[in-house]
UniProtKB/TrEMBL annotation:
Cross-referenced InterPro entries: MBL (IPR050698), RibonucZ/Hydroxyglut_hydro (IPR036866), Xnuc_lig_assoc (IPR026360)
Organism (species): Hyphomonas chukchiensis
SUPFAM superfamilies documented for this protein: Metallo-hydrolase/oxidoreductase (SSF56281)
Name of the featured protein: Metallo-beta-lactamase domain-containing protein
A single GO molecular function term of this UniProt record: RNA endonuclease activity
Gene3D superfamilies (alphabetical): 3.40.50.10890, Ribonuclease Z/Hydroxyacylglutathione hydrolase-like
Amino acid sequence: MLRPDLLLQPTPKGLYCPPGDFYLDPVRGAVDRAVISHGHSDHARGGHGKVLAHPDTLAIMACRYGANFAKSTQALEYGETVEINGVTVWLAPAGHILGSAQVVVEHKGLRMTFTGDYKRRFDPTCATFEPVENTHVFISEATFALPVFRHPDTGHEIDRLLQSVTDFPERAHCIGAYSLGKAQRVIRHLRLAGYDDPIFIHGSLEKLCAHYQSVGIDLGTLILATSDDTSKAAREAFRGKIIIAPPGAFEGKWAQRFPDPILGFASGWMSIKQRAKQRGVELPLVISDHADWDELTDTVREVNPEELWVTYGREDALVRWAELEGRRARPLRMVAYDDEAG
């Protein structure tokens, strides 16, 4: 069997496959051939030569970077295989956001599974994570790889938001949520919980929400909260309403149109009270698109690889846990990825 370090190698640009001559999620400079796990900008950049990804990821990249974000693209459905210079590549659902995928790379009897970012809990906006059997090397993210991170039930957090809307009908609820994946997930969970009122969104969410709607994910009535009307009547219309925008949008002039706002933030980092306090968050919602500590460790046990590679986050803690379980593990120490959205 081929040695793992001959099939995938950590480099400053990302994981590189020498026999296949392609990169996984390269983010430092353009490359000739890239396989992209999902559409977040810390994993998917424009300007590459050839890009292989799930159809939804390609559509999301087109929304964000324009139709010509790569010289050529190839869509790969979950479970479909392709050969790249003799290396077999296929995708399995990662459960992170719409189109997110684990990238499975096989060559000379060796199977390596790169998770990208993933989570295990229910998400009504994307395919559920599927463990890849017979994985020799499992390459796991580690965004929340500390025992302190144990995320509550998503429904519980949505109920907290709805209760606040009921308790404070005179105030606008301004919820910060990452523009791709998190915002659409929060909206869909609100709909499933029975919230049928129009939801106001920042203009930066419009294209992405439209794509989610186009593939059958019902987000209900969405209204752009981008009017230049600063009259008292326009301001009063937001009372008792939910407004969703990228977190940074609520820190500037745009947010001043909302009356007596309750600022919320949907992120796994909201379990750290000091972070919420520093950002002036009155309603911290612990809703994460990443696996928490229990999900990470349970997944490693379920996949049961011969070797664990760890990247993107708290690498040392997950490696140490694996070693205490008698598992072979190593940190990759690759480029820093943006885990702020959580």
